[in-house]
Amino acid sequence: MALPPPSAEAQVAFLRDVQRLLVEGSFTATYKFALLQAMADLAVLRGDDSGDDLTLGTREITEAMIGLYWRQALPYPGADDAGVLRQNTKDQAEIVKRLLRARGSADGSLARLRQPSGAVEHAVRLLDAGADQ
Questions:
Q1: Alpha-carbon distance 81 to 98, whole Å?
Q2: CA-CA distance, 9 to 2, in Å (whole number)?
Q3: Which one of 21, 30, 64, 110 is CB 3.0 to 4.6 Å from 38, fit for a cystine?
Q4: What is the rounded CA–CA span in Å between residue 87 and residue 52?
Q5: Cα three-residue angle 38-128-47, rounded to 5 degrees
């Protein structure tokens, strides 16, 4: 059963809540913001005004995260952890570690990663929360 589309006022209130989360949230690492951005982008791209639920799969979210976060795993001159900026105060963020492995599988090229060669499948598995790699 479809719900009626939210009113313009409800949509603005939702956006204010998201903005408040971004302003007041405790983001010690940018991957939290990237996750929120990926979900918001997918909601805009895939959602409609029908009021029906929008189901996003982890694969879709992961692929969006890869696109948004790819440059965060670039080597940075003078930084620790093989030249990649640290995202956490203790150990490097797991997403960065996994993106580094994905970068290696695609010779550092996001375009190459997205080619139908299966490299994107490997990257999605690397970033999948259940991956043991």
A1: 13
A2: 19
A3: 64
A4: 37
A5: 30
